[in-house]
Amino acid sequence: xxxxxxxxxxxxxxxxxxxxxxxxxxxxxxxxxxxxxxxxxxxxxxxxxxxxxxxxxxxxxxxxxxxxxxxxxxxxxxxxxxxxxxxxxxxxxxxxxxxxxxxxxxxxxxxxxxxxxxxxxxxxxxxxxxxxxxxxxxxxxxxxxxxxxxxxxxxxxxxxxxxxxxxxxxxxxxxxxx
Length: 178
Ligand code: GTP
Ligand code: MG
What we know:
By secondary structure, this protein is of the alpha/beta class.
């Protein structure tokens, strides 16, 4: 089988971000259309797949807890897109995006670092009707602009708001990268 063709039709998407920001919830909402209120920490890394009209992708959910944060280069190899997630109500989860971004770029092929497709998601915008936000939309957009115009989405995994839109962009962005 032609390897390049295979790569183009099966996107490897890696989701990163601090523990509790809602990575697993976003994926569950996107893939199964379900929201689970009860928090259960992801252990190591898990993955689910979803067939899309536009393409197939394999999404790698990861654990934000520090004791699992050394997944290694093998895990990141061949990634087509990286989704960074933070919680708009938790400043620290926004500040650590820098580390997640750097850590990811360290693991991918250096030839790729310049134009590697990232997407940023600011999750949990439903909480307190937006009154407990710790990071403004403008601040997040500025961060994205400084990182080479990363697409930015604000979502609620709980209310199923903007989740499909964000993941559709993941497919498009991952496909243009080759
Ligand atoms: P780790 O696996 O530890 O890295 O965490 P995670 O990023 O996968 O977080 P997870 O999806 O498990 O969500 C953590 C908690 O936040 C859970 O109790 C979810 O129900 C809740 N949660 C996730 N997304 C939202 C959201 O959009 N709105 C609200 N209100 N709660 C959310
Ligand atoms: Mg999780």
